[in-house]
Amino acid sequence: MPSIAGDWSSDTIVLDIHATGGAAYTVRQACAKVSPVSTTPSRPYIGRFAPSPSGPLHAGSLVAALASYLDARANAGAWLIRIEDIDEGRAVPGAADTILAQLDWLGMHSDGEIVWQSRRKGLYQAARERLADHVYGCGCNRREIADSRLGVGPDGAAIYPGTCRHGLAPGREARSLRLRVPAQGEDVVRFTDRFAGPVEQRLALESGDFVLKRADGYWAYQLAVVVDDAAQGVTDVVRGADLLDSTPRQIYLQRLLGAPTPRYLHVPVVRNANGEKLSKQTGALAVEPGSEEAAVAALRQSAGFLGLRLDPAADIGSLAAFWQQAVPAWAKLLAERGASLADFASAARPVAGPVAD
Question: Which residues have a Cβ under 8 Å from the Cβ of 183 and sit 6 or more positions away?
Fold first, then answer.
């Protein structure tokens, strides 16, 4: 079988060369089964923070940014920033620059080039072509899917019943592209999250064939995030728990594309007084840049939400002092939870598979 290059950052995928980190990953297009693989990469730690530019950084997204940054620093790794603006219809002009300025004010700087999804569409198209017959055109609109859905998935999305799986009805045109998931009994994806513990999802029953390219022409998040994590050599994904239920679909895509599966750590999401996830849509207030004292205060609030115990006797009046306290506090918190990388590597745990097509 050919191997996919780790340098996914160009506009095409080059075959038969080694991937980022020196390993080669085999593309599995038509195999009957995908063998289980470990979710513990042996490569140097690379983490990332990937905000969507639908508004400025707020208290909820700052928690995710802080957790990902601390995990990278606690493991002597690299921390990257990726702007997930693939949904250009939701991107607010100037929001990405605002987020980058906020992170800079907080002392959180990318260790590599900042990547913008909207500039990588050629990569997503190349990945779609590699998936070949795993992908099919879907002519259903939202109302039709809602009327015929098999249920609602863990993330609240309608479970697609497979109406167009065997071909479009006469007179119908494809509106979107979907990925076939394995049949029941062969569709279980298992992995261990460093915070949540063992996770299992049955793709056929809890997801259904999912969208890779939307009716509006934009590539879907699930495909873009898998391609970009592979391209950037990401070994560790630290993000909000609202994305935990998306992870099995991403692992399945990783298998089909022959990309490595990162370790995952999903932190609790911040909620408002009504119990809703704090977001731009629920009226979350922006983190307003100001003095260094204000930056420290914002970071300490997020650290408190994550459960970090900073030394109460320490003088944490500067960003340097905060980071000096916060990095070991994060490492200690993970060690107490059995969620450090050493614990994760040595624990007996289910791996991310098997799945079949």
Answer: 204, 356
